[in-house]
Amino acid sequence: MKYWPAVENAIRNRAQDRQARIAKMAETVGSKIEEGPLEVLRNRDPVNFMQRRADALAQRATNLKNLAAAWEPLYQTLSPEQKKRMAALTIFVLQDVSDAIEQRRDDD
């Protein structure tokens, strides 16, 4: 299938960027371990935090747009029934991701 390599590449890029974000968070948390919780809160720079968060969200948005662009040519070749199944699968996957994020927030 000639369209699949672009989709696979976009999926891999998203996964690599996610792993890099997780590693960076782990590094940040690891560097703060020696500080007590109160000291971490006192030394927190909310502007810097918002800038880092915005950068991370922008990267995630770019990755998602790239994935959508990679899927588009393949999607156009699908039959109406396949498009329906893909739509249902997309909703299921997005809900599953949303649930995982919510669970992670509840665990914190």
List keywords for this structure.
108 residues, mainly alpha, 2 domains, 4 helices, 88% helix, 0% strand, elongated
SSE layout and pairing:
Layout: H1 4-32, H2 37-43, H3 46-76, H4 80-107
Helix pairs in contact: 1-3
Oligomer: single chain
Structural class: mainly alpha
Mind summarizing the main beta sheet? none
Low-pLDDT windows of residues: none
- What is the averaged pLDDT score? 84
- Strand % is under 5%
Distance between the termini: 43 Å
Question: How is this structure best described in words?
Answer:
- With 108 residues, the chain is mainly alpha-helical.
- It has two domains: 4-77; 79-108.
- The protein has helices at 4-32, 37-43, 46-76, 80-107.
- The mean pLDDT is 84.
Produce a short descriptive summary.
The chain is mainly α and 108 residues long.
